[in-house]
Amino acid sequence: VHCTLIPLESKQTHRSKTTTPSAFRPSLRTSSSSNLTMASKSEDRKEPVNEQAVANMYAAMRSDLNQIYTKITELEMEVSEHSLVLNAIQPLDQSRRCYRMIGGVLVERTIKEVLPAVQRNKEGLEEVVTRLNETLEKKKKEIAEFETKYKIRMRKADAEVNDESGKKEGSAQGVLVGPAGGGE
């Protein structure tokens, strides 16, 4: 199907009669306006009208906090993997061949070419983790203020769980140690 439209924005001389269908343009405007709407909602939180609204807002805040924790954990694992790769390839000959996954494609490179890229990626990930930790602290403060404002307290399902956890608290702290002299 060949579509010829005259844009409404400009009535100047047309170099070509074929243009992008106008149906595609509003979707761009819609997505940017929805992003603005979402940003304004998160910044200008309305006062909840009832207890259920408070509970819903609190649950949403806790969910956001859990998502941040999850993302931090995921990125810290990636930083750890990058460190393992760096430690494995740094002592090797710089002209040695290695393979790197770029956009789902395995590409052959030399260690000399790959090493700086892996280092930059690791540093970038560490920077993102730092920012997420700052965001996490802000979110914790926001939740603490919300809890104080609406007098929210977390209840345990069983009183016995509290008693048992208090007794085991000191003994539950263990350290897992690998075999002595294992230079693996």
Explained architecture:
The chain has helices at residues 24-43, 51-89, 111-150, 159-168; strands spanning 97-102, 105-110. By secondary structure, the chain is mainly α. The protein has a domain at 49-151: Helix Hairpins (Orthogonal Bundle). The protein has a two-stranded antiparallel sheet. Strand 1 (97-102) and strand 2 (105-110) form a beta hairpin. The model is unreliable at 1-44 (pLDDT under 50). Residues 18-40 have a biased composition (Polar residues). One of its GO terms (molecular function) is unfolded protein binding.
Can you give me a brief rundown of this structure?
The chain is mainly alpha-helical and 184 residues long. Helix content is 59%, strand content 7%. The protein has a domain of 103 residues: Helix Hairpins (Orthogonal Bundle), CATH 1.10.287.
List the helices and strands and how they pair.
Layout: H1 24-43, H2 51-89, E1 97-102, E2 105-110, H3 111-150, H4 159-168
Antiparallel strand pairs: 1-2
Helix pairs in contact: 2-3
What attributes characterize this protein structure?
184 residues; mainly alpha; Helix Hairpins; two-stranded antiparallel sheet; 2 strands; disordered N terminus
The CATH top-level class label of the domain at 49-151 = Mainly Alpha
Number of strands: 2
User: In terms of per-residue confidence, which ranges show pLDDT below 50 for 5 or more consecutive residues?
Assistant: 1-44
Mean pLDDT: 75
Molecular shape: elongated
Q: For the largest sheet, list the strands in their spatial order.
A: 1-2
CATH architecture of the domain at 49-151: Orthogonal Bundle
Percent range for β-strand residues = 5-15%
Helix fraction by DSSP (H/I, runs of at least 4): 55-70%
The total count of helices amounts to 4
Q: Could you say what the CATH topology of the domain at 49-151 is called?
A: Helix Hairpins
Largest sheet: 2 strands, antiparallel
Distance between the termini: 64 Å
Rg, alpha carbons: 27 Å
What class would the helix/strand composition place it in? mainly alpha
Order of helices and strands: HHEEHH
Family: Belongs to the prefoldin subunit beta family.
GO molecular function: unfolded protein binding
Keywords: Chaperone, Coiled coil
Pfam family, one: Prefoldin_2
